[in-house]
Design a protein that fits this description.
alpha+beta; about 80 residues; four-stranded antiparallel β-sheet; about 20% helix; 2 helices; 4 strands
Length: about 80
């Protein structure tokens, strides 16, 4: 089962790791260096796989829609690269 993605313009990036934030919510670390929360919070968000080590392992390499990359690609003013 693939993660559910919002219908917002972004760039698909692979998940390279997971970590817990200070609120004990799971965060996916993406190949681009950005991060995205992955929450299992029914009925709003269904990501039951994130609650187990095996589920997270199985989703390494899956793609999530990185909105930060999408913004910086559409508008260089928001680019996170130094110039």
């Amino acid at each position: 089962m693939k993660p559910v993605q919002a219908k917002t313009a972004g760039t698909m990036r692979k998940i390279v790791d997971f970590r817990l934030d200070e609120s004990l919510d799971w965060v996916a670390e993406l190949e681009c260096g950005h991060e995205q929360h992955v929450r299992h919070n029914p009925p709003f968000t269904r990501a039951h796989w994130v609650t187990t080590p095996q589920g997270r392992l199985e989703h390494l390499g899956q793609e999530l829609n990185c909105l930060v990359c999408g913004i910086s690609e559409r508008n260089p003013v928001y680019s996170d690269s130094e110039g």
